Amino acid sequence: MVGEIDKRLKELGIELPEARDPKVAKILSSNIAGNILYVSGQVPQWNGEITFTGKVGREFDIEEGRKAARLCALNVIAHAKKALNGNLDRVLKVAKIKGYVNTTPDLIEVAEVVNGASELFVDVFGEDGRHARTVAGVNVMPFDVAVEVEADFLISDEN
After folding, report:
1. Can you tell me the mean pLDDT for 43-52?
2. What is the pTM of this model?
């Protein structure tokens, strides 16, 4: 049976990338502790191919940074789906996200960049996609990616 969130993804014309294990880091891509699903930071990749390397404010403008953040969020959702055995309807709430933007020293619009991720979570999960958030501009990122996004979800017991 196709779940409500899968139907919404289809209605929105959204395809999720393959949830890939970390290339280098010796971590879990996701971790469930009680009723919280933690998804580790995801970079802008499509099925293993990193698509945004460089700094927002130099290689990428704000709109391109938003697209990179959105792609990160798609990877977060893909990892959530994998962790929940394919059942995204178990997500009760997107509790918090954190976004890191690889920026030039003068770029101050980091919140606007991460809005690309925040807006996707609201589009996909509706009001339950509204979340708390932390955003930071940084001067170096793994693989020189433009953006990285992680998320914490409140989930229901397994159905």
Report:
1. 95
2. 0.96
